[in-house]
Each structure stands twice: as C-alpha cells, then as structure tokens.
Amino acid sequence: MATRSLQRELLGWLLVPLTAVVCFNVWTTYESAVETADLITDRTLLASARVIAEDIQENDGVLEATIPPAALEMFASDPPDRVFYRVTAPSGLIIAGHPDIVVPPGQPAGLEPTFFQTMFRDQPVRAVAIAQPIISARNPGRAVVAVGQTLNAHDQLMTGLWLKALRDQVLLVAAAGLLGVFGLRRGLAPILKLRDDVIERDPTELKPFAVNSVQSELRPLVEALNEAFARIQRQMAAQRRFVANAAHQLRTPLALLKTQVGVGMREPGTAAKEEALAAADKSVDGMARLSNQLLSLARAEQGSSSLMKSAVDFQAVARDALEGLTQSALSRDIDLGFEAGEGEFVVWGHPTLLRELVVNLVDNALRYTPRRGSVTARISREGEAILLQVEDTGPGIAEVDREKVFERFYRSAEAGGDGTGLGLAIVREIVSSHDGEVGLSGRQPPPGLTAWVKLPAYRQG
Ligand SMILES: Nc1ncnc2c1ncn2[C@@H]1O[C@H](COP(=O)(O)OP(=O)(O)OP(=O)(O)O)[C@@H](O)[C@H]1O
Ligand SMILES: [Mg+2]
What is the rounded distance in angstroms from the CA atom of residue 328 to the CA atom of residue 330? Predict the structure, then answer.
C-alpha cells in the first residue's frame, strides 16, 4: 500500500473541489463574455443601421441612400473590422452597398431588427437588418437596411474579458493552495514535533509527553501514548523487582549448597559424607525446581499473543499432570482423585504451560493438606468455559490472604516446607495468557480450599 500523507490528503480535499468549482466558473464566465461582446456588437450594428435608414431620401421620385460617415465611424476599432452595408428599396432594387454581401435571410417582420450571421469570404460576419417605412406616393412600402461587421473586435473583447476572469480564478486557486499548505504546515507542526520527539527520545526515557502542546483532537493520542509509556514503566519496575527477588532466592539455596558440600568434604567418615551428599542432592533438586519455575514464569509472561498455541485436550493434560504427582500423594498418604464430566474439554493454549498450571495447583493441595487427607481435581463445563477445580481437605487460606498468595514470593506465615512462593503467581500468569480467570474459595463443606480456573472452550471452525 502506498504511504498516505495527511498533508497531501487534506490538500487534495481542498484543491480538487475548488478546481472543479473554478472550472465551472470559467465556463460560465466564457459564456457571459460571449454574451457581453455580442450585445455590444449588436448595439453598434443597430445604431449604424438606424443612422443609414434615417438618411434615405426621395429625389425626383427616386429613392436614394447616402451613407453618412457617422454610420461607419462607430465601427472604428483596433484591430480594424470590415463593415458592409446594403440598402434595398421597397421595390427590391439595391440602392446602396453590395448586392452579394449581408443578404438578410428574409424580410424583417414589423419594425423589429433581425440579427443574423453570415460569411464574407472565410470570415464570419455578424449583421442586422431593419425595415424603414417610406412615406411616398411613388415608392410606398419599406426599405431594408442591412449592416454587417467582421468579428475581430468582438473576438478580442470577448477574449479580453474571459482571460481576465480566468487569471483571477487561477490566482484564487493558487492563493487557496498556498494558504492551505501554510495552514496545514502550521496545524500539523505539533504532531510533527511529537513525531520528532518520539524518534529522538532516549529508549529508556519513559516520561510522559506534554498534553497541552497539541490541539484538542490530538490529545487522546498523546494521552494513549503516555498511558502506554506508564504501562511499560510499571512492567519494567515489576521486571526489575522480579530479577532482584529471583537473584535473592537463588542465592539462599546456593549458599546452603556450598555449606553442605563444605561439610561433606571436611567430614572424615563415609556415612557422614553420604549424609552431606544426600542433603546437597536435595538442595540441587530444589534449585532445579526454582529455575524451572522462573522459566515458566518468564514464558507465561510473554503474553497471550506470542505463545505458540494449539488446540489442547485439557482433560488429557490434567490427567497426565496428576499421574506425575501420584508418587508424592502416596508418600503423604493422600487420596488423590480425578473426575471429568462427559464430553470434550478442548482449549486453545500452550500444552506445557497448561500442564504447569495443573501441577502447581495440585502440588499446593498435596503440600498443604495434612496426611491422610484427600485431594480431588475436577474438570467440567460451565457454559462457554471449561472449569478446573482442585479441592483439598487442608487448612484452607484465610479470605484476607486469598489475593496476596498470588503475589510472587509471597508465602503465608504458617506455610511450612520449602516452597518459594511462585506457584500461584505462575498459575495466574498462565491463566491470563490464556484469557481465563482464576480464584480461590473455601471448600464446601469445610475444611479445605477449592482453587478454580476457567478457560475459554475452543470451538472448531
Ligand atoms: N491448597 C492450599 N492450602 C493452603 N494454603 C495454600 C494452598 N495453596 C497455596 N497456599 C498458600 O499460598 C502460598 C503461596 O502459594 P504458592 O504456590 O504461590 O507458593 P508456595 O507453594 O509457597 O511455593 P512454590 O513456589 O514452591 O509453589 C503458600 O505459601 C501457602 O501458604
Ligand atoms: Mg506452591
């Protein structure tokens, strides 16, 4: 697609209709210039014909027409025109002028003048014929006076009138165009400045732009831009916090590992060495889990659009996740169950992350439920959503804490064991990257906790 220019588009909207109006104007001006020139020519022709008609006299019973100089002087013009005249007696006899030139197309009706076009050689001639009543006993009737003129002066007058109008109109369009360009430049200056500011900005600089420097129509744009900057700033702050927290979390088990290895090396006995080695092994496991968690969190954090998603059978994923946890359930003597309703439970998502989600919820349920308790994972449909519930018979979470436990590295005071406080944060991140919802509620009947997740069901086609 060709790049669109606001400046060019606005100018187009201004100049194209203006040019159309001017074209129409020029055309009507041409018409009225022709009309004016015709009118002036016709008046002169008529005045000249009248002067000639008034000078027709009868001498000794013979009609005579002398052409007074005044009748021809009115035609004096630059460029000169040729003037023709012709006087016909009532009898039909030509008494002045040339018989072949300015022959009227017919007898003028009444006393009204008849205007007509004729040719002299290859030049067009405009002419008038008038009837002049003769009061005489011998030559009664009407004499006809015809006067014609070539159109040099007429055409020059017309062209002069028209060209002047054309020049004015063209000047008008040019002035409108120039003012338009000038106005647009001025009007667009704030947005162009904003563009330069954005381009020249230091990439780490996220200060908002001044809203007052742009026109009211552009304010929403600048405000949206500022909002985006604020969002990025918040995200960057969260990222920095996360990195700092993660570094801190990694440092503690590493220090522990170092101590355990040191103890192992110093201990002389094989049994003591083995004990230290087993402790170190456990620390390494913990660290491996932590790094996995950090990785999942980073991956889920990329957001919905950048994940490689496909149609995933959520029931199969959940079943698989639970199978991986049966050993840990057995070791704690917990009854781990899985229930799935009838039908398909397909979601559009990332299979590894979805598995991680189930593992984190079930792992919590197993971890915080006392021995001989029970944990049930259940999948069902709720309208357009697929609902996962993980229910346990543990101590539950106080209502005031149910929001806090989703924060990264947050662990409630009474939570024992060796968690890092990332499990639920990961769950929330995965749910939001799948456009779902997550929540915690008290198990019915108490005691215990129900963690639930709703994901949009995937519909084929
Ligand atoms: N099913 C549950 N029953 C009671 N308390 C829970 C349950 N699930 C989570 N919690 C509480 O919420 C806190 C946060 O859980 P989260 O899974 O985020 O972290 P964690 O389990 O402590 O560590 P990890 O990162 O290893 O999962 C836990 O420390 C625990 O206090
Ligand atoms: Mg956990």
Answer: 5
DSSP codes joined into one string, 139-153:
S-EEEEEEEEEESHH
So what CATH class is 218-301?
mainly alpha
| In the chain, ranges of CATH 3.30.565.10 domains | 306-456
79 prior amide bond cis, ω within 30: yes
Query: Topology of 306-456 in CATH?
Result: Heat Shock Protein 90 (3.30.565)
Q: First vs last Cα of the chain: how many Å apart?
A: 30
Which ligand places an atom closest to the C-alpha of 395?
Answer: 1
The whole-number pLDDT of residue 2 equals 59
Tell me the pLDDT tens digit for each residue of 110-153. 788 999 999 988 999 999 999 999 888 888 889 999 999 999 99
Ligand 1 center from residue 400 Cα (angstroms): 15
For 259-271, what is each residue's pLDDT tens digit? 999 999 998 889 9
Nearest atom, ligand 1, residue 364 CA:
8
**Residue 157 CA, ligand 1 centroid: distance in Å:** 100
Over residues 429-444, the mean pLDDT reads: 93
Give nearest CA residue, ligand 1 atom 13: 411
